[in-house]
Structure formats: structure tokens, C-alpha cells
């Protein structure tokens, strides 16, 4: 009979739990195409969810520090509009054309609205002296990021008054700026009297680019005439990571025997479409802060424009990609064969990750030739690993040592125009030496998805960290005001690496009391705290919700 989840679990507890149990993922061996079909909807959904998170955090800060009213009712209304688009035939991309058309328009409107609300909250926090700019970081660790400076700003100074290195690229000035965990930093705009013009900026040549090579202090990659990476050398160890051409575009005929928009046929690899036309590869940036090459290439009836970028001091390479997709019943993938020995891969899911076999030894393993991920997937040995990151791609196949990210599909039923048009997305990879627990994978994936933001103006509080953790394993996923309108702060945290950990939460504003709550924000227990410091202990992948009374 129909009933609530609570009724079901209470009834099950009264009957007694069964002796038999199943351990592992309950993988549904069908509908694998729903991770990819209608890519625009999936991208808009992720960007909109991120926009809501930004609005909640900066809206809470502006409410507390600037007396700018938190929009409780409007946020409730907007969240419900977004959740409607999570209906099971909208977000998977398996509706008729009219539904997708209307859903895309709705998500575009929602994204514009929440981004404007988040921007308004940040501007309220930085509405003082206009000869400054403020960098906002919504993630729960400090960051140093490459930032495009606002129009009219050609340079910035650090706290000592020394000018920061600037790189010009395509008409914009870029600088590397720092912001603390879930907070902001203020920088002086470069002009006479603030940045001494007579002090030259000395920047070592850390990055370089040619049409066939990108290099920084950590990595050296070689690029062939198709825009593929034929060598990836880790300078720390001298290790070659590429086991074949990486960033290799693969096109396949994609016509499943049934459920066109829903499914990917297990035999698709037997029907490749040759992509023999070479690319045009040329340098677009050559340091000192970053270097990049542009790849322009024809893919059957479609075209690809891709900027491959490497930053100084970073072990991450990004692929900012635009595809004009004109295919029917085709599937585009990008392959990264790497020299990693592992019998399973890891894929991020909500609040953690799952491990899955990268072989087809058993029927249940063979069924998982296409699986779901969120922001990252990885192959790891005991002392090193390689991860693919993405900003909106959910389908991936990991077979042996080849990671194959599904980029686009073009089914014709029930929407005969699925995915045709222009798509913009980013993916990247990072590699590390050491254990997975100490790897940067989770943070790197967040950083690819959650950009820092620059507002023109200075904050009265020149630098403030609203919240930080002393464990890299624990992520503050959400910070917002309580739904009851009390003005209390709600912080939702989770352990991301599958480890038991003791840590401390540091809050940057005065806290009078703290409580652990359920996910509906009902109090469970009061937590000890002193001077904004709250000790916590997490089980592997545990989610905690904390209420802070300020």
C-alpha cells in the first residue's frame, strides 16, 4: 500500500530486519543513455544548483553583516521551480521536444535569476571604496585562482602595496588572487599612489606553449596534429602517464535496439565512425600565469573548438570545449588511456563516491559498461592516481586503464532533434603522487565547478573567513539560513574520502550555541563550542547538519 517512508521503515523495524543483505551498488542495467541525453538540460541544472548554493551563502552573510534581508519566500519558490525540472523524464532527457524546449527556457531563467541574486549579495558585502576589488570564495578551503579582472581594472596590489603579476589574454587582464575559506579578500586597484609603477613585476617563465607542447613546473605534455595528448610526463617523478593518445575524440554509431533516448547499446564500440581529418592547433597564450593552445577540428558533420590550458604551479590541465553538434544517432566520447594498474575505478556520487570494477569478469561487471558520475572519476594505485574532472558530464566508461567520458549523444526518439546545436563545457584531468586520501581530487573537482567571483568595491572587513575546517576530507556543502526564519545558520558537511576523521569547524562570526540537527533542521543534540570552534567526528561518508545560533 502507499505510505510515507517513515511508516515503511517503522513497519519494517517492527517486523524485524531480514537476515540476508546485499552489499554493493544496486546498478540498474538499462537506461545508460540518460546520463548524457539532452546535455544542455544537464549543464543548466548543475549551474543552477551551484547558483542556488552561492545565493544561500552570500545571502546569509549579507543578512548578518549588511542587514540585507534574506529572501526566504523567494528562495523557497525558486527551489520548487528547479525541483520540478528534476521530474524523471525531464532531467534524464527522455521527453518529447516541447518538454525539453520549455524546460531549457525555465532553467535558463532560473539560472539568470539566482546568479543575479548571488551577485547582488556579494555586491552588498563589497559596497565600500571603489578603488578596491573583492574576491569571493564559496568553498570551505582557501584558494589561489586565476581571475579575469573587472572592466577598467588593469592591475591590483597586495596588502604590502606591491603590484601583482598580470597577463593579458583576448582583451582581458588576468591575475592570480587568493581568498580564504568561505570568505573574501580585498585588493587595491593598481593606479599611481597605490601600486608603485617604478617597482617592476618579476615573474619566472613557469609556463610555456608551442603548437605541440604545453609545460609548467609540474607537467610536460606533447600534442599531436589531432589535438591529442601523446605524452603526459610528471616532472616530479619523471613518469610517463599516457598509455596511448589522450584527449582522443571517438565517434560511434549510436542506434540502440530499443529506448533510443534512454539507452546505450553494449555493442556500440563495434561501430566506430572514422575521424581522419587533422586539426588546426595554435598557441593562444604563453605565460607567465598560464599557457594554452587552441584546437579546431571537424568531427564528421560537426566542429570542435577547444582551448587546452595549463596554469603555473598546477597539476591540472583543462579543456574548455565548444562543439557545434550536427549529428543524428551518433555518440561522441573522449578517451584517456593511462598507465595506472587498478581493478576498479572510483566515481563521485552525492556526498562521496562508489568503487566499480573496470573489467567484465562477471555478468554484473559486464553490465556496467556505462556508469554515472558527478564531478570526477579516478583510477588509483596505492601511491598515485589519475582523475578526470568535468563541469556537466555524467556518463563515463572505465575499461581496464582507459577512461572514456561521454560528451554528446543525438537520439531521435522521442525528441527527433535531441542535442543538435552548440554545446559549451569543460573537463580536465589531474594526477597525484601519494595516497588517494591525500590526493587533491575532490577539491580540484569542486574548483573546476565553483568559480571564485570578483566584485568591484572593497569590503569593510578586508578579509574574512566565515567557515573553515581543519580536515581536507570534510566538505562544507551548504551554508544557509534556517528554514524557520530564525536567522540561525545551517551548515551541512560531509566526509568525502571514505575515512573516519576527527576535526574542528571554525566559524568566523560569534556563535552563542551550536546544535547537531537532522536534515529537516530539527535539533538532535547540543554541541560543545568555544571561540567559534566546534569539535566534530565523522564516520566514512557521514553527512552532518549543524545549526549555529549567532
Shape: globular
Q: Roughly what fraction of the amino acids lie in strands?
A: 35-45%
Any low-confidence stretches, pLDDT <50, length ≥5?
191-201
Q: On the 0-100 scale, what is the average pLDDT?
A: 94
Q: Main sheet, how many strands, which sense, barrel?
A: 9 strands, antiparallel
Rg, Cα atoms, Å: 24 Å
Number of distinct beta strands: 36
Structural class: alpha+beta
- Helical percent range? 10-25%
N- to C-terminal separation? 45 Å
Total helical elements? 6
Strand order of the largest sheet: 14-15-16-17-26-23-22-19-20
Features:
globular, six-stranded antiparallel β-sheet, 550 residues
Secondary structure layout:
Layout: H1 5-15, H2 39-66, H3 72-84, H4 97-125, E1 132-137, E2 143-148, E3 156-157, E4 167-169, E5 172-179, E6 183-189, E7 208-210, E8 213-215, E9 219-223, E10 229-234, E11 239-240, E12 248-253, E13 272-273, E14 280-286, E15 290-299, E16 302-311, E17 316-325, E18 330-337, E19 344-349, E20 352-357, H5 363-367, E21 371-372, E22 376-381, E23 384-390, E24 395-399, E25 402-409, E26 421-433, H6 441-449, E27 453-456, E28 463-465, E29 467-469, E30 474-481, E31 489-495, E32 501-507, E33 513-517, E34 523-527, E35 533-538, E36 543-549
Antiparallel strand pairs: 1-6, 1-27, 2-5, 3-6, 4-5, 6-28, 7-8, 8-9, 9-10, 10-11, 12-13, 12-18, 14-15, 15-16, 16-17, 17-26, 18-25, 19-20, 19-22, 21-24, 22-23, 23-26, 24-25, 29-32, 30-31, 31-36, 32-35, 33-34, 33-36
Helix pairs in contact: 2-4
Amino acid at each position: 500500500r502507499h505510505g510515507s517512508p517513515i511508516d515503511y521503515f517503522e513497519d519494517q523495524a517492527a517486523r524485524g530486519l531480514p537476515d540476508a543483505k546485499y552489499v554493493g551498488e544496486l546498478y540498474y542495467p538499462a537506461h545508460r543513455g540518460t546520463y548524457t541525453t539532452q546535455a544542455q538540460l544537464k549543464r543548466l541544472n548543475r549551474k543552477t544548483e551551484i547558483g542556488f548554493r552561492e545565493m544561500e551563502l552570500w545571502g546569509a552573510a549579507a543578512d548578518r553583516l549588511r542587514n540585507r534581508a534574506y529572501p526566504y519566500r523567494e528562495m523557497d519558490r525558486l527551489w520548487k521551480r528547479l525541483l520540478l525540472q528534476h521530474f524523471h523524464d525531464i532531467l534524464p532527457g527522455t521527453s518529447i521536444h516541447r518538454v525539453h524546449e520549455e524546460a531549457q527556457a525555465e532553467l535558463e531563467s532560473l539560472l539568470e535569476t539566482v546568479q543575479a541574486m548571488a551577485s547582488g549579495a556579494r555586491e552588498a558585502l563589497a559596497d565600500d571604496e571603489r578603488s578596491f576589488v573583492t574576491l569571493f570564495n564559496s568553498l570551505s578551503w582557501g584558494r589561489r585562482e586565476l581571475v579575469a579582472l573587472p572592466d577598467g581594472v588593469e592591475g591590483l596590489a597586495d596588502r604590502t602595496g606591491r603590484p601583482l603579476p598580470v597577463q593579458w589574454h583576448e582583451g582581458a587582464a588576468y591575475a592570480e588572487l587568493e581568498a580564504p575559506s568561505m570568505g573574501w579578500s580585498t585588493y587595491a586597484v593598481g593606479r599611481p599612489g597605490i601600486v608603485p609603477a617604478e617597482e617592476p613585476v618579476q615573474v619566472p617563465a613557469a609556463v610555456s606553449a608551442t603548437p605541440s607542447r604545453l609545460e609548467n613546473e609540474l607537467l610536460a605534455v606533447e600534442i599531436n596534429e589531432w589535438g591529442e595528448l601523446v605524452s603526459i610526463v610528471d616532472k616530479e617523478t619523471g613518469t610517463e602517464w599516457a598509455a596511448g593518445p589522450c584527449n582522443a575524440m571517438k565517434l560511434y554509431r549510436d542506434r540502440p535496439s530499443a529506448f533510443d533516448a534512454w539507452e546505450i547499446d553494449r555493442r556500440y564500440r563495434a561501430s566506430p565512425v572514422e575521424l581522419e581529418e587533422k586539426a588546426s592547433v595554435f598557441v593562444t597564450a604563453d605565460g607567465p600565469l598560464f599557457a594554452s593552445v587552441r584546437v579546431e577540428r571537424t568531427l564528421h558533420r560537426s566542429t570542435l573548438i577547444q582551448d587546452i590550458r595549463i596554469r603555473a604551479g598546477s597539476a591540472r590541465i583543462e579543456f574548455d570545449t565548444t562543439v557545434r553538434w550536427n549529428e543524428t544517432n551518433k555518440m561522441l566520447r573522449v578517451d584517456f588511456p593511462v598507465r595506472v594498474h587498478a581493478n576498479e575505478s572510483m566515481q563521485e556520487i552525492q556526498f562521496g563516491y562508489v568503487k566499480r570494477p573496470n573489467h567484465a569478469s562477471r555478468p554484473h561487471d559486464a553490465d556496467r559498461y556505462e556508469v554515472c558520475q558527478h564531478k570526477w572519476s579516478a583510477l588509483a594505485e596505492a601511491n598515485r592516481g589519475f582523475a578526470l574532472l568535468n563541469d556537466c558530464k555524467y556518463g563515463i566508461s572505465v575499461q581496464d586503464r582507459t577512461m572514456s567520458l561521454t560528451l554528446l549523444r543525438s537520439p531521435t526518439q522521442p525528441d527527433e532533434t535531441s542535442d543538435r546545436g552548440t554545446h559549451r563545457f569543460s573537463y580536465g584531468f589531474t594526477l597525484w603522487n601519494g595516497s588517494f586520501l591525500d590526493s587533491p581530487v575532490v577539491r580540484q573537482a569542486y574548483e573546476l565547478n565553483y568559480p571564485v567571483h570578483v566584485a568591484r568595491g572593497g569590503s569593510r572587513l578586508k578579509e574574512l573567513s566565515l567557515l573553515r575546517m581543519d580536515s581536507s576530507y570534510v566538505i562544507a556543502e551548504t551554508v544557509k539560513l534556517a528554514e524557520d526564519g530564525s536567522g540561525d545558520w545551517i551548515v551541512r558537511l560531509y566526509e568525502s574520502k571514505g575515512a573516519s576523521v576527527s576535526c574542528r569547524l571554525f566559524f568566523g562570526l560569534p556563535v552563542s550555541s551550536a546544535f547537531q540537527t537532522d536534515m529537516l533542521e530539527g535539533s538532535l543534540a547540543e554541541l560543545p563550542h568555544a571561540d567559534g570552534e566546534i569539535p566534530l567526528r565523522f564516520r566514512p561518508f557521514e553527512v552532518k547538519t549543524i545549526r549555529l545560533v549567532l
